[in-house]
């Protein structure tokens, strides 16, 4: 039975914690991959020619001494090991959902692939591009079309940038103040199936 390695806590800046936790996870991949998938040459290019082999180091030391202060090294190793920060974030999400549980992996065996776990969930996402108020207005129309088909509740992720972020926060705030079913009913365009005869205040205010 394997024991979990202690987690190194970030000191001072709480915003540093996710970066540290990613480096710890990447360090564990480094140790597991060396020397088959990760050559000594590549490791030396990141850590320096005098650095000990990863197999001789604890994950905490790899993370704090060789990865945290070396962003370029993180990028190089994440590419070689196919373990970018986005994959680490997905692992946190799937673990929180209870569908990717590393603690249940066989002792000493590989972890299940998180991409396969996410695929099996049939999750759906919508992306809103930027473009200022024009983008926000266009994306409002997208939301209205989804609401008219009662599909807002089918969205698991909403990723936005710039002007798309305006409508994202507008929607998130509105749902937080009321609820998804009521927002969906009020978002339906007029004329349509909605029982409303005027636009709701949030849309008139926008």
Describe this structure in words.
With 206 residues, this protein is mostly helical. The protein has two domains: 14-116, no CATH class; 125-205, no CATH class. The protein is 53% helix and 4% strand. The chain has helices spanning 17-33, 40-47, 59-67, 71-80, 85-97, 114-120, 132-148, 163-177, 180-187, 201-205; strands spanning 125-128, 157-160. A two-stranded parallel sheet has the order 1-2. Strand 1, helix 7 and strand 2 form a beta-alpha-beta unit. Helix 1 crosses helix 3 (59-67) and helix 7 (132-148) crosses helix 9. The protein is elongated, with a radius of gyration of 23 Å. The relative contact order is 0.08. Mean pLDDT is 86; it is low at 1-8.
Strand content range = under 5%
Q: How are the strands of the largest sheet arranged?
A: 1-2
Radius of gyration: 23 Å
Q: What is the residue-averaged pLDDT?
A: 86
Q: In DSSP terms, counting alpha (H) and pi (I) runs of 4 or more, how many helices? A: 10
Tally of extended strands? 2
* Cα shape: elongated
Count of domains: 2
The H/E string reads: HHHHHHEHEHHH
Oligomer: single chain
What composes the largest sheet?
2 strands, parallel
Runs in which pLDDT lies below 50 for 5 or more consecutive residues are 1-8
Terminal residue distance: 57 Å
Amount of helix? 40-55%
Quickly give the structural class: mainly alpha
């Amino acid at each position: 039975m394997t024991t979990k390695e202690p987690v190194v806590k970030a000191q001072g800046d709480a915003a540093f914690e996710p970066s540290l936790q990613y480096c710890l996870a990447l360090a564990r991949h480094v140790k597991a991959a060396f020397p088959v998938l990760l050559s000594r040459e590549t490791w030396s290019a990141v850590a320096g020619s005098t650095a000990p082999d990863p197999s001789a180091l604890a994950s905490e030391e790899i993370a704090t001494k060789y990865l945290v202060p070396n962003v370029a090294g993180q990028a190089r190793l994440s590419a070689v090991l196919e373990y970018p920060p986005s994959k680490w974030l997905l692992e946190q999400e799937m673990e929180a959902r209870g569908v990717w549980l590393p603690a249940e992996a066989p002792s000493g065996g590989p972890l299940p692939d998180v991409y396969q776990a996410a695929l099996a969930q049939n999750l759906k996402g919508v992306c809103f591009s930027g473009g200022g108020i024009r983008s926000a207005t266009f994306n409002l129309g997208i939301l209205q079309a989804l609401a008219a088909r009662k599909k807002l509740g089918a969205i698991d992720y909403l990723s936005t940038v710039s002007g798309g972020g305006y409508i994202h926060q507008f929607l998130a705030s509105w749902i937080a103040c009321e609820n998804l079913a009521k927002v969906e009913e009020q978002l339906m365009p007029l004329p349509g199936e909605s029982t409303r005869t005027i636009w709701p205040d949030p849309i008139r205010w926008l």
